[in-house]
Each structure stands twice: as structure tokens, then as C-alpha cells.
Amino acid sequence: MPARTGQEYIQGLQEQAREVWLGGERVKDVTTHPGLCNGVQAIAALYDMQHDPNRRDEMTYVSPTSGDRVGLSFIIPRTRQELEQRRTMMLHWARTTCGMMGRSPDFMNVNFAAWAAAADYFGQNRPECAINMRCYYEYIREHDLTLTHSLINLQRSRTVSGMFNLEEGTALRVMRETAAGIVVRGARILATLGPLADEIAVYSPRLARMTEGHSPFALNFAIPCGTPGLKFLCRESFDLGRSHFDHPLGSRFEEMDCVVFFDDVLVPWERVFLLGDVDLVNGMATATHASLHTAHQGAAKNVAKCEVVLGVALLMTQTLGNAHLPHSEERLAELMLDTELMKACMRAAEADAQLDAWGVMCPAQLPVEITRNLFMTAYPRMVEILQLLGSSSFMLTPSEADFRSPLAPDIEQYLATDTATARDRVKLFRLAWDIAGSAFGSRQVLYERFFASDPLTRARTLNAIYPKAEVMERIWEFLRDDDSAEQSPHSTACPRPSEGTKG
Ligand SMILES: Cc1cc2nc3c(=O)[nH]c(=O)nc-3n(C[C@H](O)[C@H](O)[C@H](O)COP(=O)(O)OP(=O)(O)OC[C@H]3O[C@@H](n4cnc5c(N)ncnc54)[C@H](O)[C@@H]3O)c2cc1C
Prior knowledge:
Blueprint: H1 6-15, E1 19-22, E2 25-26, H2 37-49, H3 56-59, E3 60-62, E4 69-71, H4 80-96, H5 106-117, H6 119-122, H7 127-143, E5 147-150, E6 152-153, E7 173-177, E8 181-189, E9 199-203, E10 214-224, E11 230-234, E12 258-268, E13 272-277, H8 278-288, H9 290-320, H10 326-351, E14 354-355, E15 361-362, H11 365-390, H12 408-414, H13 422-436, H14 439-450, H15 455-465, H16 468-487
Parallel strand pairs: 1-11, 5-9
Antiparallel strand pairs: 1-2, 3-4, 6-8, 7-8, 8-12, 9-10, 10-13, 11-12, 14-15
The structure holds flavin-adenine dinucleotide (FAD).
């Protein structure tokens, strides 16, 4: 089946009943629920882009098995050119959502493409797992499915940290094995896109060793979101049901985050990719390089997001007439730096990309991983800059209804600036508020701080991969030069200040 249209995606959601809870009620149809339907429409628009005749070659490629044109984010890149083509495709999607839907389907697509190429890794102890992985990848590629994912076990306390926190009764675990598959129970966070996805992928980035060799917590599988016993509990929706004028981003790009409860859920054997082996779970990211590919997708999202924040900031200062003031220029320059740094890292990651042992062209590790670390602190600062530039103008943002009220003439007269009509000014600042102040915007900041794990873990990752020896050796070399200079016969030729001639 070729790449899906938006309508086919929506139909897929409607055909698969799933247990989604929002605001104390079970959602009957995610495609029509007021808190979710606009997010569905946004994802549908991404699928429709695949059918834009002007973009066909940029959005799709020919499937190696069916010969159909399938989504380009599914490609297993074998050359730098394919890596760049995939980035062009991901950037189109990211720009369409202003970088505000971090979990658009390409995120999981690139992940499974990397895993499929490295399928033998999953089959080391259970050969059938390698077959399962290859078949599953082909299945989601040929059906153009949307995946959510949930990596972290819910924690009752934080007295022990993250991966060691495998509490009985809370952390997801295998309860029993049956002829049909494994039965799992527990709770996981944080399935962004959960209600809007066809399937959910479940695995752990790292896991503590419980017993020698085998652990009921060591899992990697994927199942349909409608699987019996699977329950998605949504946070409140930040799509407040207002117009695009009032909430330009929240009314379009609500991707929703969920806790997922697994109530004795049966995972068919053919959907099990790893089972019980802690070492294989822990080695997965390094061996398959999947995280380099998801970072590549994240980098495209970051570039799109930087461009939006910068564009908004430039228009804000132009509208307020303070673009030329030194403090504005300093802050705008910071946003320009972030934008160009992000592009440079992405470009470096592609330019220095290398084939791995699986024959996959992988973005260079350091620049692509740095895009994650950088954005954790850069994005909150970018939002702070918007707040500093905007000040009270964020509060001078009457709603669309106010422009239709008896006060409209006053609004039109007094809220206009030298360069903008009142309506344009308000429209712009309502967009800025959706980035820098609203619930939707605040969630974006939280997302950028934490979606790629916590800052401490990210810092430790960077420490682990950075080529430290090179810079340390350069310092020793410098100090050695100093030693040899002291012993050199020429050292007297140029007296040190304390030895200078007197009188
Ligand atoms: C909006 C959003 C969307 C997300 N989407 C997804 C998703 O789609 N799929 C998914 O699987 N996950 C998702 N995540 C979850 C994300 O993976 C986790 O939030 C992340 O792993 C951090 O875990 P935590 O929230 O439990 O934070 P915690 O582990 O509780 O960390 C909280 C703070 O404590 C600090 N800390 C933790 N341990 C220590 C320690 N030992 N010493 C000192 N400080 C410490 C951390 O650095 C951090 O600042 C999402 C998160 C957010 C916020």
C-alpha cells in the first residue's frame, strides 16, 4: 500500500477502537473529540503532503519490496545523499507544524528503520526476534502507520533513580508467557501522540540488572493502540477550542501526552523484539545507532522551531518599533546564533556521516547528539527572550470576539503601532503568547527540557561520547613546550619581565 493520505490516516483511527480517557470521560472518537481532533487534522495534513505532486520525490521513495511510493522517513539511508533527502522530508513536516509536534510520525519511523537494518542484533538469543523486527518494519512502512512510544516506567518514589526503579506492581513487566504471546502489566510514561497513533512501541532505553541474565522488565514490543487492556490517560487538552486567531498553535498542534496502563495486555509473539535480556536492552542504542537517527529527526524539528521563534521575534520588534535598540539587537542576535548553530550541527552531522556495521549511513554522533543537549537549555532561553522583548504587549491581546464587539473601533485605533494595524499586532502577539506564555507554550518548554530524557542523563551521555583525550593531550603538549623552552639555550635571549634590565 502506498503512502497514506490524511483521510486514510483518519479512517484508520476511526476503525480501531481504543481506550482513551480525557477529563474523566472515555473518548468515543479521537478524530472528533474537541481536545484531540485538531491534532488529528495536523497529522493528516502531514500525510497529505506526501501526495503533493510538486513534492512527490521529496516526500516519498520507492519501496524496495512493493514498488509503491512510501514515506521517505521510513528509508534505511545507505548514502549521505539519502540521509539528506530524509532530512529534507523531515524538515518539510517540521516546518508545517512550526516544530511544535515533536512526535510527528517520522520520529518513530527513523527509529524502526535503524532497528530493522540492525535486526540481527535483536535475534542474538531468539532468532525469531530478528524476523519479527524486519517484518514489523516492513508492515509499518507499507501501511504508513503512526507510532507512539513509551519508554519510562512510572515511579512511585524517586529514592532510587530511573532505571533502578523497577517497583513491583508499577513498572511494566511480563506476568506470564502463553502460546499466543506474553502478557504484560504495569504503567508507563509518557506516550506523546498516544491517542493519535495506530500503534505503540514499548521499550526501555536502559535497565538495571535484576537477576542474572533474565528480567521480566526487559522488553521491546509494539502493538496496536486498540489492543484490549491498553488504556491511555490524557493530560488536559491545551487545545482550548478557540479560533486560530486566538490560539494559533494550540488550536492546531495539540499532540497530547498520556500515561499508559497495561492491564494484562497480550502481546503476540510476532510483535516481541526483545524479551528478558537486560544486556541486549542496554546495548540496543549503541549497537543499532537508532538514537542518532531520532536525534536527526529532532534536529530538523529544532531548526524549524528556531526559525519560528526568530521570525516571531523579528516581527515583534518591527511591530513595536524597537528592532534598532541595542538591547533588542543583542537578544535577536542570540536567537540567530541558536538558529545557525542548530543548522550547523545538523549539516556537520550529515557531512561527517558514516556507514555503520549494518551498512546504514548514520549522522555523525557528536554534532547530532549535541543538538539534543543544546536545545534543552537553548529553547527555554529563546522563550525567555520572547518574553523580554514582548513585555506588556503580551497582555494587549484582545480576542477575536473583542474585534467584533462595540469596543472594536477603540481597539483598532489605540492598539495600532507605527508599523502595524491593531489586528496584525494582536494576531502576532497571540502567536507569540502561544509560544511564550500559554499552557500550550509552557508544555513546549517542558517538552524540550525533558523529552530526550533528563538533563543529567544527557550531560552524562555527552561526557561519555566526547573525545576528551584529544583536547587534554593538546594541553600537555602546550605545557611540555613550556618545559622545553625553559631548558632551551634561546630562553635567555628573551628575558622574562622579572629579569628585565634595571637602570
Ligand atoms: C512533554 C513531554 C513529553 C514526553 N514524551 C515522551 C514520549 O513520547 N515517550 C517517552 O517515552 N517519554 C516521553 N517523555 C518522558 C521523558 O522521557 C521523561 O520525562 C524523562 O525521561 C525524565 O524522566 P522524569 O520525567 O521521570 O524525570 P525525573 O527522573 O524525575 O527527573 C526530574 C529532575 O530530577 C533530576 N534528577 C533525576 N535523577 C537525579 C539524580 N539521581 N540526582 C540529581 N538529579 C536528578 C533530573 O535531572 C531532572 O531535572 C516526555 C516528557 C515530557 C515532559
